[in-house]
Amino acid sequence: MYDFNYHKPSSVDEAVELFSDLEDAVYLAGGHTLLPSMKLRLAAPTDVIDLAGISGLSGIDHAGDDLKVGALTIHDDVATSAVVRSVIPALATLASGIGDAQVRNRGTIGGSLANSDPAADYPAAVLGLNAQLVTSKRTIAADDFFTGMFETALEEGELLTEIHFPKADTAAYVKYPNPASRYATVGVFVARTSDGIRVAITGAAPSVFRATEMERALAGDFSESALDGISLDTDRMNTDLHASAEYRAHLCMVMAKRAISQIA
Amino acid sequence: MTEKSIGKSVLRREDMRFITGKGQYTDDINLRGQAYGYFVRSPYAHADIGEVDISVATDMPGVIAVLTGQALAADEVGSLPCGWMIHSKDGSEMKQPPHPVMAAARVNYVGEPVALVVADSYMEAKNAAEVVAVDYSERDPVVAPGDARSAPAIYEDVPENTCYQWELGDREATESAIAAAAHVTSYELTNNRLIPNAMEPRAAIADFNAATEDLTLYTTSQNPHLVRLILTAFIQLAPEHRLRVIAPDVGGGFGSKIFVYSEETALAWASMKLGIAIKWTAERSESFLADAHGRDHVTTAQLAMDEQGRFLGLKVKTTANMGAYLSTFASSVPTYLYGTLLAGQYKTPNIYVEVDAVFTNTAPVDAYRGAGRPEATFLLERIVELAARETGRDPVELRRINLIQPGDFPYQTPVALEYDIGDYEASLNRALEMAEYDTFAERKAASEAKGHLRGIGFSCYIEACGLAPSQVAGQLGAGVGLWESGEVRVNPTGSVTVLTGTHSHGQGHETTFAQLVASRFGIPVDDVEVVHGDTGKLDFGLGTYGSRSLAVGGSALAKAADKVVEKGRLIAAHLLDTDAGNIDFDDGEYRVKDSNQSRTFQEIAFAAYVPHDYPLEDLEPGLAEKAFYDPGNFTYPAGTHICEVEIDPETGVVAIDRFTAVDDFGNIINPMIVEGQVHGGIAQGIGQALLETCVYDETGQLQTGSYMDYCMPRADDLPDFSVGLTNTPCTHNPVGAKGCGEAGAIGSPPAVINAITDAVGVRDIPMPATPEKIWRAIQEVRA
Amino acid sequence: MSISVTLSINGKSVTRDCPANTTLVELLREKLHLTGTHVGCDTSQCGTCTVHMNGRAIKACTILAVQCDGAEVTTIEGLGSADNLHPMQEAFRECHGLQCGFCTPGMIMSAVDLVNREENLDERVIREGLEGNICRCTGYHNIVRAVETAANRMRN
User: Fold this and answer.
1) What's the first-to-final CA gap in chain A, in angstroms?
2) Helix, strand or coil for residue A69?
């Protein structure tokens, strides 16, 4: 890791202001993507802004129908939260399967979402539940947030502060982990919400996406067999050492059906 | 007091330091004033090196020196040697292109060291290494072993990139047997390339003392004496008596720490050149690139049987990838550790094997846990399985009718080895019982009832351990002897210091060897201390590889201990005023026959060092003995592994439901440690079968260069193992032991693949049998 | 950039000036000579560097020393000593849950956290709970036995 200047602001405003003043700054949350990247010298920021000194960015709140999760909330807290388990148990299940125990004790939901790794788990829940992403300057709908591989709608210096998950009627997340990295080779989040059925798939493509053909089929008949005959476009699927596009497309169907069977 | 601890699961004495964080691995050592080294490595698989501009790097903060491969060549530092000369079938010597410690003119694999930066801190060395400007001109690389012989030559004087074309066995007789057979089974396979991944990355500290001209090298080695020998006799860095090599606690090796590598060699040279201590510790990314890899065979084979299923002949043709250079023992792995094992446990009368060893622009390939024997076992146990399926025979029964029987020993195979002893059917029967083979059909039905597939796979393996004898090995091309040294020093109070030339990096020698010697003397295990891993303390030794430590090193210690007993007998006879022939030694006591007169071992020890009334012309003071043991034959551990899998057909995911291993390791000193060795070996074998593979792309870039992509077995990938033992003691060493370190990795891969292919109902699924490959196979079966 | 960091390590308050890019494991090993915490990879996966921070198992290679300012850190050296072993250390020895010993400190620290965290431990939970720690020697069989053994003792 190259040396850098370290900053630890105590408010969101201060953090955002620092970011705009500095030449090549990054925000540091749990650091479980940033620090490995810096150690491998794939990232070399001049300045690191540690968000840990900002109060109020961490925690879980249940207000009205929404579940509010602070951006600095670690995965283990989401996984073990009684509130999350009762309101959106699928979200707790998802969090309990991210990385490994040590990673879950440091990695944060905000860090994961801002990084938008194509194989990360959280984007599936955010998109599947149509969450709202609250930032230092606005609120972004999940449908508008993930713009590509490692790309989001966040502007330069814009800081993700809270995620609002609307309560779903029922939801499930089923993941096929990469055997080496334990990221999602394919992860499928299926939710029945007041807005209808949503199916979000992570790991399979350059960015998390909604499987609209599945959503349409399930709207009429919420059953595993409703998905029969759907063939996902393998052209949009990733191929890597661990899984071909064809296998990923197949896994999307299997994981989706397993999610449906958990709900139905 | 009496202490017979042989055969007891004595808890390991080395554990106390490891569980409290007090272990001392190489990277835990820091010398006053040490500098740090960082290697500039080739980013290309094949390129010519032009100018190496070190000017910017040299001026970076903290930099002491930037030493290039060209500077090393100018100092005439020798080439890294390969210790085993193989002759091709035409009688010619194998091609051994120079293996520079750091590349000066051309790089031949990604990760090859090109320069060493020495700086005050690790970070400063790394920063400066990034700005060493090397002018590379890329050349086309050769990556796949199957392409090597038809690709442009990497080395001008190595046509067709072929290191050697070796053969063993009777070609004509084997081909005749195949031609006349009732049934011939053919099989083509790739034995997947693996990266060893001991959890402790390699590391070294070279410390040259300009005042005494002594060089001390701390390094992560399985055999420090070999490091010393190669650095002195071959590379001629320092006189042998001026170089001390210390291998402190070493965090796993599995073969990868046998070899003498560029890094410690360059570090030793730089320390002498600069007159300072220099430390280097590999980052895991460097380990992936530059540790010697394992396996990487492409093979075709034919097995011939008669009408009754009796094996008549086996013909094998293998291409073995050596990588870019010959690593220390690379040439011996696909030959004498592979071809000689192709009889397995069976009475196949005719065997012929040809091996083409080829160079490619990949990291060197050398011994990795099992080294040649897993490749032989995989081929054999897969083709036997296929033969059973093709001819509609029960795979167990086909094996059984071909087994070498207890009455057949000593058994001369058609591929050079003479097995001394074994009872293969006993292990097979015990394994079938433990695996509950008789109720397998019920379990299969239960799996099918829930939509899953279940299969069972067998593997009856043999290995040759304790490489030996030196005389034979020398005739076959070995550059070193294959004996071991042992020294037993009895201190005046009766405590004992044992020195062994073998090295423990997880095998528990500090406990096992103490048990061995304590039992011979009838003293408490805690009274025996074991010293290893330091050329400054020990006689020459060959270290630990090939499951040899107890069979060869333990035998040397047993011999030395027996000499101590005899010397003690002379002392006792003197003290008790009788003839030595009149003294019995048992249970820690020297006793005059048919009398109650006796002396304890401790009393004799004290007397040995207080020779006040010795007949000094007949009896020297002191009680310490050495022995060098050169085995008369290999040892032949053997056993049966049975794997039972359940497969989710929707995803192809395999769950190993049961894994049973029954092994005959001869006499056992510490069953707990032996079982642990078996567990670890099985895990690595399952890793090869299901998870692990080293992938280079067509440009020679390593695609599996971290744990993100190279899949190591984790706790949740594996089941509990069911492990049993049988015993036919080795006939030719004083311990009766055969060796247990590699068996798990040798026996298990074919058992896993046989189980998976049985479950799916296909002929073959290449290793690693990933869920996608299995899923595709299921689709084909169902189509 | 150098920063003063104060933290509690194994119950003792420690203050050191560290460059900002110092990781916790570098502080432990290089400055405090607590070499029981190891480094086995550079991608935050092997788990050999596992320590406890404020009661949770974390990977000391993936946290800056400065992020630990004010924290309580426990390393293998602080878990128990030869004459006062933690039940997990004792169980690893009794069950032969280690061979080369390199992964062992991290494995033990993870295992302690697992037992503290999970109420219902069975073989599967233990195996899954240790997925952040790689061992190349043991095949995990005896590690699982050790965790089961220690868990019983820690709870009784």
Assistant:
1) 49
2) strand
Residue numbers in A near B716 (CB within 8 A): none
Q: In what order do the strands lie in the sheet with A66-70?
A: A60-63, A66-70, A160-166, A132-135, A139-141
Interchain CB distance below 8 Å, A251 and B708: no
Residue pointed to by tokens 């068996």: B743
Neighbours of B198 (CB within 10 A): 25
> Residue C75 CA to chain centroid, in angstroms?
6
| Chains in contact with C via at least 3 Cβ–Cβ pairs below 8 Å | A, B
Provide the shortest C-alpha distance from residue C69 to chain B (in Å).
23
CB contact under 8 A, B15 and C101: yes
Q: In whole numbers, what is the pLDDT of chain B averaged over residues?
A: 96
E strand or H helix that includes residue B434? helix B424-434
Q: A10 at the C interface (CB within 8 A)?
A: no
Give whole-number Cα distances, A6 to A3, A46, A159, B302, in Å: 9, 9, 17, 66
Closest CA to A145 of A115, A190, A166: A115
Question: How far apart are the C-alpha atoms of C144 and B607, rounded to whole Å?
Answer: 49
Over chain A, what is the mean pLDDT?
Answer: 96
Which residues is B313 bridged to in the sheet? Answer: B304, B350
pLDDT of A177 > 90? The answer is yes
Would strands B183-191 and B203-209 be described as parallel, antiparallel, or unpaired?
unpaired
Q: For chain B, say whether C99 makes contact (Cβ under 8 Å).
A: yes
Amino acid letter, residue B276 = I
CB A135 within 8 A of CB A31: no
Contact B691 A251 (CB under 8 A): no
- Tokens coding B693: 């593979």
pLDDT digits (tens, 9 = 90+) for B393-439: 999 999 999 999 999 999 999 999 999 999 999 999 999 999 999 99
Pairwise CB contact (< 8 Å): C92 & B284: no
Give B19's contacts in chain C (Cβ within 8 Å).
76, 85, 89-90, 92-93, 98, 101, 104-105, 108
| ipTM, two decimals | 0.98
Residue of A nearest to C4 (CA): A6
Q: Is the pLDDT of residue C55 over 60?
A: yes
Q: What is the pLDDT of residue B647?
A: 98
pLDDT value for B702:
98
**What's phi and psi for B597, nearest 5 deg?**
-80, 130
The greatest distance separating any two alpha carbons of chain A, rounded to the nearest whole angstrom, comes to 57
Q: Report the alpha-carbon distance of residue B599 to residue B745 in Å, rounded.
A: 48
Q: How many angstroms separate the CA of residue B675 from the nearest CA in chain C?
A: 9
Which residue is closest to B676 within chain C, CA to CA? C138
3-state secondary structure of C26: helix
CB contact under 8 A, B708 and A181: yes
Q: d(Cα A173, Cα A263) in Å, to the nearest integer?
A: 10
Distance (Å, whole) CA B111 – CA B293 = 13
Helix (H) or strand (E) holding B36, with range, is: strand B35-41
Which residues of chain A are within 8 Å of residue B651 when distances are taken between CB atoms? 176, 251, 254
pTM: 0.97
Pick from B606, B745, B740: which is nearest to B672 by CA? Answer: B740
From C2, C34, C29, select the one nearest C16 (Cα to Cα): C2
Structure tokens of B357? Answer: 């060893």
Of A180, A250, A251, Cβ closest to residue B708: A180
Residue B696 is encoded by which pair of tokens? Answer: 């280079």
Report the number of secondary-structure helices (H) and strands (E) in chain C.
6, 5
Q: How far is B356 from chain A (nearest CA, A)?
A: 29
* C29 to chain B: closest CA residue: B28
DSSP code of residue B507: S
Give the tens place of pLDDT for each residue, B696-709. Answer: 999 999 999 999 99
Contacts of B545 (CB under 8 A, 6+ apart): B222, B223, B255, B258, B329, B367, B371
Mean pLDDT, to the nearest integer, of B616-644? 95
